[in-house]
Structure formats: C-alpha cells, structure tokens
Write a structure and sequence with these properties.
By secondary structure, the chain is of the alpha/beta class. The strands form 3 sheets. Strands 5-4-3-2-1-8-7-6 form an 8-stranded parallel sheet, with helices on both faces.
Length: about 425
C-alpha cells in the first residue's frame, strides 16, 4: 500500500510539472544529436576501486563511515592517462562517455570547493581527474556526460534512505536544506569549470522510494538550474520509473527498453530519447574477482538490438585503482570498434526501423535506407513485414551481393545468397 500511495503521488506531481516543462530548441537539438551517437562508454571509478569489490562495497561490507574515507589517503592512480582513455574509447567507436564524478560513497573525483573529500584535497594524487578527462574529451571530440549521485553514504546531512543504514552514521544531523544546497553548489561547479557538458546523469533517487511520506527531491529547481547554466545540457535520472518533468532522455538499466530480465527496467517506454546502461561483467566498479565478462559477440549484438529499439547503449568500464582499463574490457572495446568500423553506417545516425524487432533480429533506418540486422536465422529466406511500404532494391550491406526480393501480402520475402553467419548479417533495403 505504501508503494502504491507513493506511486500515485509521484504520478500526480509528474503530470502537474510535465505540463510546465517544454524543452528548448537547444535541448531538442541535443536530443537529436544524442540519438545519433548510439554508443557510449560508462566509467565507474573512485576510491572504492582500491578494495576491488565493486562500487557498492562501502554499503555491502558495512564499512564505517569514519573509516571508509581513509581509502583516499592511499589513492594514487599513477597510470591514469586521460588521453589514452579517450583514444581507446574513440577507437571503440564510442561517441560519448559518462563519467562518475561522485558516487554513493560521496567522494568527489574533481577539485570541489564544497568539502575536502575529493581527489585533489583528499588524496596524495593531487590532480583534478575530471579536468584532465574533460580536456581530453574536448580535444578528442568525445561528448562528455557526468554521472552524479543524489544519495550519499558519507555526509551526515544527507537524509538517511533505505541504503547505508549499517555504516554507523548518526541520525541527528540530517538536514535536507543543507544537503540540497551542497549538491546544487557542486553541480554549478561541474557546469561552470569544465567546459561543455552535454548531460547530467543522476542516480540514487530510488534510495527514498520506500518512505512513508513521499520524499521531495526538489528536482524541478535542480533541473532548471542545469538548463540555465548550460542550455544544451540534457538531464537524465536513473530512477527506474516514468520520466519526470525536466528530464530529456529516459534511462534503462541492464535491459533494453521493453525488457526486464534484471528487475530494474519495468517502466513504460516513453517518447524521449532512450539509453540502456550495461555492465560488461556483473559489477560497475572494478572487481578483482569478477571475471564473468559477457562475450564480445554478445556485446555487439546488444549494441545492434539497442539501435533496433531506437536506443543508445552505454557500456560500462570499471578502471583499476591505478587508472588502467582492465584488459578484458579493452579487448571487448576493440572488438566493438572493429564491428563499427565495418557496420557503423547501419548504426550511427539511424533510428529504429519500420520493421519491429523479431526473433531473427532488428531493423534500423536512415531516410529511405532500411537496414535489416539478422542476428539469428537458420535459413536463406526471410519474410520482412514492411506493410504498405514498397521496396525497390535489396543487397547485402557489406559486399553488395544481390538479395532476391519477392513482394507478398504485407511485405517481402528476401532470398539471401547464403545462410547468415557472424555477429550481424545486414541486408540493406532501398525504400521506394
């Protein structure tokens, strides 16, 4: 009942504010550009990497809030090289990165003036990692998106939610007004000190989704501030629910839109630009024991399926504490890069095609070019339901081989020159 009341309240508030938010022309242009990108890299990195047990280790291991910050005393990522990161991601075919400026442990990966618990003032490293990464992205042509946690297991003024309850934090100093001001001051820093930022990516809203009284995150004011400081900057929030007013893209976690095998993406699919974030293995932050990496082929197919669902894929990498990217992650990025070098034309700048996803695969589309991505087929013939749309030519995308084309009721039967194989077999149809 409590969750039902919360959901009704949230829906009413969302509908009320939605009528007031109208994205600007700059935001609309950013949304189109974002959809054209199709592929980005997510970076989960912070002092938690030193424990090699994922980004939730503080909460999962119930590490005392006074002891955990001492990790910063030894954090010295001597092998961090922002330009090498950017080069690796560009060669992988990524068009943007989303970097964790501050995760749930409250540690800031930039030189914030709001407290000393940050990469410059709180570690022997003394370098502003975000500054170096921002400069490298702007120089290398990668769009920069910034992850920012709404919740905080470290600060005493953060109102305790359903996580972080076993960390020894006192409850008598909780002060939402103080914490909200702190967040907004940090966001102002991120949006005024590091050049162009194309998205603020929030996480942690769900920490208060079980409150008896619905928690007011005051999103309207915060979102408006972001849009005012950088009018082209998109706002996203990983709250696992229906988009709120002021949000410019809709996020899904570990599943593509309309799928929910992981249990975090059961929300209805909106008309906003879509993005799915996905781990390569089972953790977001670096884990020294997690070698359960998805295969290279699986990741390519997830990218293709995402594009077919009109969705971007944000693929996560958890750097080691020394700043190096794990070998397994780099190998998979290189594989994706090789695929996109060949098939990028059928992915970048496309939208989900007029043929809906099927068991055999998906379609993407760019103007009158319809790309049929065959991911699973044990035959040389395939029926494509194009409805009233006429097709005047068909060929294998990669080599131009002719594909047989026979008009039938509600579509066409394609006769392929060979049985499809490989990660993705693409047929290009030219619409009349």
């Amino acid at each position: 009942m409590r969750k039902t009341i919360f959901s009704i309240f949230a829906l009413i508030m969302s509908l009320t504010a939605m009528a007031q938010y109208q994205p600007s022309e700059q935001i609309k242009a950013s949304q189109q550009t974002f959809q054209d990108f199709k592929f980005g890299v997510f970076i989960h990195w912070g002092i938690y990497s030193m424990l090699g047990d994922g980004e939730w280790v503080m909460n999962n291991k119930s590490i005392n809030y006074q002891e955990y910050p001492h990790l910063a005393d030894g954090f010295y990522p001597s092998r961090f090289n922002a330009e090498e990161w950017v080069r690796t991601f560009r060669e992988a075919g990524a068009k943007y990165i989303t970097f964790t400026t501050r995760h749930h442990d409250g540690f800031s990966m930039w030189h914030t003036a709001q407290d000393t618990y940050n990469i410059v003032d709180g570690t022997p490293f003394k370098r502003d990692i975000l500054k170096e990464l921002a400069d490298a992205c702007h120089k290398g042509g990668l769009s920069l998106h910034l992850y920012y946690s709404h919740l905080d297991w470290h600060r005493l003024d953060y109102p305790l939610g359903r996580t972080g309850k076993k960390l020894g934090r006192p409850t008598d100093k909780q002060n939402w007004a103080s914490y909200y001001a702190f967040m907004n001051n940090q966001l102002r820093e991120l949006l005024t000190r590091y050049g162009r930022i194309d998205c603020i990516w929030f996480d942690g809203w769900w920490d208060h989704d079980e409150d008896k009284t619905p928690f007011d995150w005051q999103l309207d004011e915060q979102y408006a501030m972001i849009h005012q400081l950088q009018p082209q900057c998109l706002v996203a929030n990983n709250h696992h629910g229906k988009p709120y007013p002021g949000e410019d893209i809709q996020l899904f976690e570990q599943d593509l839109p309309g799928e929910n095998t992981y249990g975090l993406s059961g929300q209805a699919v909106s008309q906003l630009p879509l993005e799915t974030c996905l781990t390569m293995n089972n953790t977001w932050g670096y884990s020294i024991t997690d070698k359960r990496y998805k295969s290279k082929e699986t990741l390519v197919r997830e990218l293709v399926r995402a594009a077919g669902k009109n969705c971007n894929l944000l693929l996560n990498v958890g750097p080691r504490p020394d700043g190096q990217l794990p070998t397994e992650a780099v190998e998979r990025l290189q594989y994706i890069g090789h695929f996109l070098a060949q098939y990028g034309e059928t992915i970048y700048g496309t939208r989900g095609g007029l043929v809906a996803p099927h068991d055999w695969g998906v379609s993407t589309q760019k103007d009158n070019r319809l790309f049929i991505h065959i991911l699973s087929l044990t035959d040389k013939a395939l029926f494509i339901p194009t409805g009233d749309h006429k097709v005047k030519a068909a060929k294998v995308f990669i080599n131009g081989k002719k594909v047989g084309l026979k008009a039938v009721s509600n579509g066409y039967v394609l006769t392929l020159p060979e049985q499809p194989s490989g990660d993705d077999y693409v047929v290009e149809l030219t619409l009349a």
